[in-house]
Each structure stands twice: as C-alpha cells, then as structure tokens.
Amino acid sequence: MVRAKRSMLQSLMTLAPFFLCTVKAECPTAPTELDNNVILSDEAVVQNEFPDGSVVKLECDNGYVPEEGNNTITCDSGSWTKVELRCTRKNCGPPKVIPHLTFEYQNGENGTYFRDRIRAICEPGFQLVGSGHWQCLNHGWKGKSACKEIMCGAAQLDTLPALENGRIIKAPLDKEHIQFGDSIQYSCSDDYHLTGNDTIKCTENGYTELPKCEVTAQRPSKTPKKEPIESSVSVSKGAAIAVPVLAVFFIVSSLLICHCAGNRGSYDTQEGSNKMGKLTKRKSDNFQDHFDVV
Fold first, then answer.
1. Who is most buried in 41, 205, 217, 237, counting CB within 10 A?
2. Is residue 7 within a helix (H) or strand (E), and if so which, with residue range?
3. Domain tally for the chain?
4. Tell me, what CATH number does 125's domain have?
C-alpha cells in the first residue's frame, strides 16, 4: 500500500512541469500607455479581468478619427500586443452653403479642424440672425446662422418718418417695403429752412438721422428810396421846361440888380425903384415872349 502511494506521487511530480508550461498567465490590467489620442473603449474601461487571449477594443479620443491600423489589442501570455491604431485630428470641412452668408476663417483657409472657429458674415443689405461664430467639434460644425434682408418698414406715406414743419418730396413708394439703401428726401414748409442732410437712408441700424426745419429769421424791410419828383411846364412847341430853370432865372436877375445898386450907391429911392421895375418888367417881357406857361 505504501509502495503504491509512493509510485503515484512520483508520477505526479513527473507530469507537473508539463502542466505548468501549458497554462498561460493572464494580463493583470488593461494597457495604460497608449499612443497620443488613442483611448480604451468604454467596455474595456469597466472590464476587471483580462485572461490570456482577451481582446480589447481601442478608439480615438474626442475630436480625432481613425487614420490607419487595427483598433484592437490582445493579451498574449501576460502582455498586450502592440497598438497599431493611429488617430488624426477631425476635419469638419467647409460649412454648408447658406444664402447671402459667408465665413471668415480665423486660422486661415485650413481652419476647419477640431476646435477651429469661423465667423459668420452676411452680405450688405442683410442682417445676421443666429450664431455669430461656428466651431468644429466632434460631430461637425456647431452653429446655426441665417441672413435676413434689412427692411425699414412698409413703403407707405403714413408710415415713413415724419418731419415737423416739413414734407416728403421723394420716396420709393412703388414697392412693398423700404429696403436697405433706399432713401427718402424732405423739404421744409414756407417760412422754415432745413438744417442737416435733406435725405435719410435705410441702413442696417434703421434710418439715418432726420433733418430739422427751423423758423427763418424775419429780416427788417428796407424803406424804398423816394425818387425826386420834377414838375414840368409845357412849351408851345411841345417841349417841357423844369421849374428849377425859373428859379435860377429870378435868382440871377436879383443878383444883377443888387450889383448895380451897389456900384452906384446914390440911387434915389424912387428912381431906383422905377429903374428896377423897368428892368424887371423888361426881363419878364422878354421871358414871356419866348414861353407860354400853361
């Protein structure tokens, strides 16, 4: 009996190395040192045991996509096979075409990769609605924009900006709405003058500033200069002689009489009066011979 037990023990000791060589060791943990932007899948992260031959799935980090290589590794005799997966930065590509909308790339023409940003710009005459910037993320471009045509209200006379003490003289009333770039022209009522630009325009911020109609200052009226009125007399031949001519004649006559009296000095009063009367009468007779006063 004892001999039989010894024989069995020796047999087991002989086979022990064979069993030890055929049993392979398991991998203790998932790999921790991976290439840049390569990570374990969600399933591998929560897995606790990795027996020999276990296959673990890999994937690219957020914002990266597979470029080449196998996306799995295997536990082989207690160690993991080499990581072959290569990941590259995600490229969102050009954004979709939107009417009247263009984009400005902040990182140049190639600025369409993960985390790059672009700015949305509307054409003149249109207003941006929505996101002013878009960003390339893991699932593509994030942003939503549209361009709305700029209008400043209905093209009706009673809805246009009113000017106090003024009126509209030109406006595009042949359309439904006042659009970007349209203009309206004003003028002032009587006794008012316009200050500022007489035309306003529809812009992206609404109408430009209205002009003003201010009261025109009253200037003092000038008294018209009176022209001298001349009296005239008619002559027999149809001509006219001005009254001042008669005045000059009598003044000259008086001077001549005084001159004569001064030279002689001893005229008798009666004699002087007679001679002066004769002289005056003679001058008057001569004048009547030539003029007939009407």
1. 41
2. helix 2-22
3. 4
4. 2.10.70.10
